[in-house]
Amino acid sequence: MKKHCPPTICSLTKSITWQAVASLATMAVFYLLTGEFTFAVLAGAVEWAVNFLLSFGRQHLWAKNRPEEGQTQPIVIWLTGLSGAGKSTIAKLLVKKFKENKLPVQWLDGDVTREFIPATGFSREERDRHVLSTGFMARTLEQQGVNVVASYISPYRETREKVRAMCRNFFEVYLSTPLETCENRDVKGLYQQARAGAIKQFTGIDDPFEAPSAPDLELDTTHHSPEETSEVIFRAIQDWLHTQHL
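RE: above sequence
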């Protein structure tokens, strides 16, 4: 009598095998791009761990909340702009909208991820690594059917475009709130410290912010509430996905 592999064991085995192969490819690409073996291994390990956990567990975690197959496409929403533009607040509201529509979603935030990688500095090279690592996490989540809302200053245009190239559905939202407005909102006094020289390499003061040349959506939040802005973004995403997948 032929013995069949238990579904759970088969699922586990397939997840390990395929994700290991994919992660080796990721490590190779990262090594070719950066020339740094340690960083390449870290990127591959992060992708493998996230991909494996999602691939093996999503049918149990999200079975009741996932839409019908083909009903929607996962998307990576990338909020970029100066500190104080409203990225994190708006991101939280967008996540809430996805959950209200019973769609799987994950929020990735610059300040939050830095708490887990405290050694990450603010030089251009370190910022690029930080953003590219997040881009790989976003891509991995998207491949597993999870929508991603990412809120990062991500000041350099070239790096954001590299993240765009990683993802299938990438929607860049540029919060073009003026520097003066952002400074007025700064309850932590970070801009004041930066102008006094206490904080170095602060975006908008002594480090440049390269505005997107062709964002998918540009919004100035000066005269609009976070609730209004998140509603505009959510509707724009729905229209964009419909256009992309006609």
